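Justification of resources, computational component.

The compute hours requested in this renewal are based largely on the per-chain cost of generating structure records like the one below. Each record pairs the submitted sequence with a full structure-token output. That output is archived, and it is also reused by downstream analysis tasks.
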Amino acid sequence: MIHEMTIQVRVDDFGKGQAWYQVLLKREPDFIPHEGFAEWEVIPGCWLQIAEGTPADGSGPMRFAVMDIEAERDRLIEALPIERFDIYQREEVPVKWGTFADPWGNRIGFFEYLDEAEKAEKMKRFSRE
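The structure output for this chain reads:
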């Protein structure tokens, strides 16, 4: 049974990479086991790792659920060197989403549930923990 997961992205400048992801995630890493490596537990049991190294071409996107995708996009455009990205939605898909890249080419994105009841139900999980 799978009970936890990690996702790793590589950056060729670890100091800049750590600073960039701290702004993205709005906090310091949870764990820095050694030089050139940092981890954040993004949600319980799901860890994002950044490692110093050569970024992989065509990786991702890795998308994070947010409550307000437009507000998060605006925050990042102001705080980080990213291009304004489009937000998409389709009638048959229950979320809207958008994708951008970090300075190393790793594809990242956000998604937001469209149904307010579903959004509230998803958030109940976090209020119980």
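DSSP finds three helices and eight strands in the chain. Helices lie at 14-25, 69-79, 116-128.
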